[in-house]
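quick one before i forget lol
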Amino acid sequence: MTWLERYIAGEHEAVWAEMVLRGPQIVDDAGSLRDAEAVAKETMLRIRHNLELLEGRLRQHGFRFAADDDRDWPHPALNRPNPDAPSLLGEIEAAVGGRFPLSIRAFIEHVGWVDFNGDLPGWSPRLSDGLQIHTDLTGLADLLVDMIEHGYYDDPGVGATQAHLELSADHLHKANISGGPPYGLAVPDASADGRWLFDDLHPDHTFVEYLRVTIRDGGLPGWRRTAGEGPPPILEHLVDGLIRF
């Protein structure tokens, strides 16, 4: 069976683990690459479906998305993919000298942009750490090249010839508190999935693993940082019937 066939049959975590074990060599075999790209696309279509459900349910319960009110933030909580994303990604990858992980490429192409930062009435942990994946490709090539040349991030997760692809504010900045570096991935990296960086709540997760556990938390995982804090009171409704991925 192919990875895609096994994935559709329910082996979600096992298939991703096997693809990650291939490392950058996964792109060297055309058949394996096509199969892995198909899994990545199927995964992100499921994630998109889940995020659409979560956004609607959060709004139903009066969740106030920060993106709705900020005049400097013209994006809705869930934005459609840029139709030019594949060609723009190709240009960015050429500039930085290598591919992005298949997972984030598929997210950019099939999910788009998500920002679940905000407030839920009746539930107010200090740091809700709402799911936030920013994928604006404008000017990204120049930014990443500059990072590679000047080594902005001194972290073992970002190699000497890599840049930090910033995808989300950290949990403190989301709460308007001065914090640390953004969450994200090291690029270039031709692997199926990359390690999710600078998030102490999910220190050993890949990007897909981070999305998996965060969506299980209704997109609001920050309560886990505070002893004695509980999950959103509507969590059971938020995650009811979400598609496994």
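fyi The chain is about 40% helix and 10% strand.
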